[in-house]
TrEMBL record:
<dbReference type="InterPro" id="IPR051534">
    <property type="entry name" value="CBASS_pafABC_assoc_protein"/>
</dbReference>
<dbReference type="InterPro" id="IPR036388">
    <property type="entry name" value="WH-like_DNA-bd_sf"/>
</dbReference>
<protein>
    <submittedName>
        <fullName>YafY family transcriptional regulator</fullName>
    </submittedName>
</protein>
<dbReference type="Pfam" id="PF25583">
    <property type="entry name" value="WCX"/>
</dbReference>
<dbReference type="InterPro" id="IPR028349">
    <property type="entry name" value="PafC-like"/>
</dbReference>
<dbReference type="InterPro" id="IPR001034">
    <property type="entry name" value="DeoR_HTH"/>
</dbReference>
<keyword id="KW-0804">Transcription</keyword>
<feature type="domain" description="HTH deoR-type">
    <location>
        <begin position="4"/>
        <end position="63"/>
    </location>
</feature>
<dbReference type="InterPro" id="IPR026881">
    <property type="entry name" value="WYL_dom"/>
</dbReference>
<dbReference type="Pfam" id="PF13280">
    <property type="entry name" value="WYL"/>
</dbReference>
<dbReference type="InterPro" id="IPR057727">
    <property type="entry name" value="WCX_dom"/>
</dbReference>
<dbReference type="InterPro" id="IPR013196">
    <property type="entry name" value="HTH_11"/>
</dbReference>
<dbReference type="Pfam" id="PF08279">
    <property type="entry name" value="HTH_11"/>
</dbReference>
<dbReference type="InterPro" id="IPR011991">
    <property type="entry name" value="ArsR-like_HTH"/>
</dbReference>
<dbReference type="InterPro" id="IPR036390">
    <property type="entry name" value="WH_DNA-bd_sf"/>
</dbReference>
<keyword id="KW-0805">Transcription regulation</keyword>
């Protein structure tokens, strides 16, 4: 917190949050000495924010009773960010939030200047984000429960139904939430399987926070773990392909959901599993860069069939011939 402006704003937030704080407490929270703290208090007073000073053994600082800050003000970039965030939230599959999105948008527009209000309304009425549609209804209660448990490092007991309709009770150390392919997932350490696992929220019948806590791995990426888990699902055939392009281009063309991408020098290795080599061959056939099929050989045959089909379709027919 090296910036003095940031410290002044943090001081204001502390005074708003706590009814009364001593000079020692404020100085420690801001990481400054008492003299610097008094300069920050003076800066708030010069901005018209009434800070009262109470002297004595139990003295300290507080905002004048009844003082309220004026409404939030946004610049153009902030208004755009908030409006896009509200649009994106509409596609997250949480039905309970739909009315809240409308009321939140209305409240924000009420405190915006006329020009920003008009821009926000125009974006809301005319823009649409092509995000993956929610394929399963989200549960606001479960979403908040796992988000809170993840932040608090708190274990959760859950009743889970898998894709074979088998019901099990698990104890999970939740490491993070991911919205992928129209569904919400929670990833973490499963005590029953003694391994990392990901669970679809729409298959969780009940969840209960426990008192036990845990340590979350500092470098854990729930989105990357989920991608690896889905790529390694027990589908019929494992596939390995070397893509002669960079990582960003490979992900852009094939989509992150198809498998696990790993940089390999000037190329990218793609590892995936599929139940249809013909489908996988079609995905490769549309790529604008070269590639090598490493495994399985049957994928080469499937790609050759796609090439033969395209070559057949590329032959002009009689109806394209010009009359003499």
């Amino acid at each position: 917190m090296a910036n003095p402006t940031v410290r002044v704003l943090t001081l204001l937030e502390l005074l708003q949050t706590h009814r009364h704080m001593s000079g020692r407490e404020l100085a420690e929270r801001l990481g400054v000495d008492r003299r610097t703290l008094r300069r920050y208090i003076q800066a708030l007073e010069e901005l018209g924010i009434p800070v009262t000073t109470e002297r004595g053994r139990h003295g300290g600082y507080r905002l004048m009773p009844g003082f309220k800050l004026p409404p939030l003000m946004f610049n153009s970039e902030e208004a755009l960010a908030v409006s896009l965030g509200l649009l994106a939230a509409q596609g997250l599959g949480i039905a309970e939030t739909a009315p809240a999105l409308d009321t939140a948008r209305a409240k924000l527009e009420r405190v915006m200047p006329a020009r920003l209000k008009q821009q926000a309304q125009a974006l809301s009425e005319s823009a649409r984000l092509e995000l993956p549609s929610a394929r399963a209804p989200g549960d606001e209660r479960l979403l908040l429960l796992f988000a809170t448990a993840t932040q608090a490092r708190q274990r959760v007991r859950l009743d889970y139904r898998d894709d074979r309709e088998q019901h099990t009770q698990r104890v999970l150390n939740p490491y993070g939430l991911v919205f992928r392919g129209g569904r919400w997932y929670v990833s973490g350490w499963c005590h029953l399987r003694r391994d990392l696992r990901s669970f679809r929220l729409d298959r969780i019948a009940e969840a209960t926070p426990l008192e036990a806590s845990f340590d979350r791995p500092a470098d854990f990426d729930p989105a990357a773990h989920l991608a690896r888990s889905i790529a390694n699902l027990p589908r019929a055939t494992a596939v390995s392909v070397r893509l002669h392009t960079d990582l960003a281009h490979a992900v852009e063309e094939l989509g992150r959901h198809i498998g696990v991408f790993t940089p390999d020098g000037s190329a990218v290795l793609l590892h995936a599993r599929t139940d249809s080599l013909a489908w996988f061959a079609r995905q490769l056939a549309r790529q604008p860069y070269d590639f090598e099929i490493l495994d399985p050989p049957a994928l080469c045959d499937a790609l050759a069939q796609q090439a033969a089909r395209l070559q057949r379709l590329a032959v002009p027919t009689d109806r394209w011939k010009m009359p003499e």
